[in-house]
């Protein structure tokens, strides 16, 4: 927490352009599948992550919530993954970036469509639907919204399938027909498998079943343990150890001419449960003034002002939070590239009139309207290295 003397009553807010913007176009999650698809000869795809070498059979294993910094901090719990750190990003030993906000719905859409958030249109955990004026939860897809108009672009899996590449997703059967799967990861075949071991075996089989393949698989439990217990808890370490063994299982079953890429949708930080680190929007009359809707999540907020109040809300939020959050107007955040190099017209109104991204280990909770989210130990969403940097580990056969 920043300390100020009694006469220093007007500290300068964090400059908007000081936020570390994701590496859109050269090293973000949105660039991964287009890079792999370009190597497979899929028309229209560009190899943005130039450090990667093409392979005939490609598998992406996304571990929800396993950021670069968390992995590096737990070598004893993940010996196999740790042994692969130097392979990250084509052997450079460097991470890639998730994209803003660093949250699951946004990141999965970036992975599957190969587009940054400003284009695919899932720019947050909850955002305002300009057509209805209501908040839309893009992870749970509530209230239900027609998926096609919300995210109209084809996925890379669809384009690969049309180009004759075998495309497949291997995940929990729960995700087979969800709207998020439809807009972000559909195309080719979906194979539902309950256990992680069965998913690994199925992914290897899908790779071996064609000369050219693009396969995706997923593990969620690291993220769940981090949210509930924290990213240094015994439960979290146990989940990390389990997924470490899953990655090794898949790596040992890769068919010839394959490349396995292990990545994540975001990292995570633990936020202490005290008033210095958790600011409650529902109990703060200054922050609530002029706000019609509060969207996003605790470390990446979309703030929707009542008509005519957006300048006042921006001024207030900068005064109250500006030392700990990057606070920007919608147009400032767009100009700074937070959501990518372009913003589609249909997406513009989904972004908050004010956007607030946490720099410090703080959380803007809403205890009344978001009781479950406000009680989480581990959190994510912003542009700090702990949340933004994700691995791109590689195994080749």
Descriptive overview:
With 397 residues, the chain is of the alpha/beta class. 32% of the residues lie in helices and 19% in strands. It has 18 helices and 18 strands. It has helices at residues 32-39, 68-72, 79-83, 88-91, 104-113, 117-120, 147-150, 156-162, 179-184, 196-208, 221-229, 234-252, 285-288, 310-321, 330-335, 345-348, 371-374, 385-388; strands at residues 57-63, 96-97, 126-128, 135-137, 166-171, 189-192, 213-219, 258-263, 269-270, 278-280, 291-297, 300-305, 325-329, 354-358, 363-365, 378-379, 389-390, 393-396. The strands form six sheets. It has a six-stranded mixed beta sheet, with helices on both faces. A four-stranded antiparallel beta sheet has the order 11-12-14-13. Helix 11 (221-229) packs antiparallel against helix 12 (234-252). The longest helix is centred in the middle third of the chain and has 19 residues, at 234-252. It is globular. The N and C termini lie far apart (48 Å). Residues 1-8 have low confidence and may be disordered.
């Amino acid at each position: 927490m920043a300390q100020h003397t009694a006469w220093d009553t007007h500290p300068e807010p964090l400059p908007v352009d000081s936020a570390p913007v994701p590496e859109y176009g050269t090293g973000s999650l949105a660039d991964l599948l287009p890079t792999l698809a370009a190597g497979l000869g899929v028309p229209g795809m560009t190899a943005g992550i130039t450090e990667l070498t093409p392979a005939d059979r490609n598998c992406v294993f996304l571990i929800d919530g396993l950021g670069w910094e968390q992995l590096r901090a737990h070598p004893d719990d993940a010996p196999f993954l740790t042994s692969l750190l130097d392979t990250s990003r084509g052997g450079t030993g460097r991470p890639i970036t998730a994209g803003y906000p660093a949250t699951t719905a946004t990141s999965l859409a970036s992975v599957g469509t190969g587009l940054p958030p400003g284009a695919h249109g899932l720019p947050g955990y909850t955002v305002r639907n300009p057509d209805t004026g209501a908040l839309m939860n893009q992870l749970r897809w509530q209230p239900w919204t027609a998926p096609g108009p919300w995210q109209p672009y084809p996925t890379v899996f669809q384009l690969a399938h049309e180009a004759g590449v075998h495309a497949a997703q291997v995940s929990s059967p729960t995700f087979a027909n969800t709207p998020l799967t439809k807009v972000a990861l559909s195309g080719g075949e979906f194979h539902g498998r309950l256990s992680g071991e069965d998913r690994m075996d199925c992914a290897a089989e899908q790779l071996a079943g064609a000369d050219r393949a693009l396969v995706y698989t997923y593990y969620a439990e690291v993220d769940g343990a981090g949210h509930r217990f924290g990213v240094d808890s015994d439960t979290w370490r146990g989940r990390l150890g389990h997924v470490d063994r899953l990655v090794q299982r898949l790596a040992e079953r890769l068919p010839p001419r394959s490349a396995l890429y292990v990545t994540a949708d975001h990292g995570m930080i633990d936020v202490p449960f005290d008033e210095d680190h958790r600011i409650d929007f529902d109990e703060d009359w200054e922050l609530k003034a002029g706000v019609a809707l509060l969207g996003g999540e605790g470390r990446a907020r979309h703030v929707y002002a009542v008509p005519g109040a957006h300048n006042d809300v921006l001024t207030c939020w900068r005064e109250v939070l500006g030392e700990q959050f990057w606070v920007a107007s919608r147009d400032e955040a767009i100009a700074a590239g937070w959501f990518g190099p372009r913003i589609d017209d249909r997406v513009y109104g989904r972004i908050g009139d004010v956007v607030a991204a946490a720099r410090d280990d703080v959380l803007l909770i809403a205890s009344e309207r978001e009781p479950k989210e406000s009680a989480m130990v581990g959190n994510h969403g912003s542009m700090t290295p702990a949340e933004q940097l994700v691995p791109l580990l590689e195994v080749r056969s």
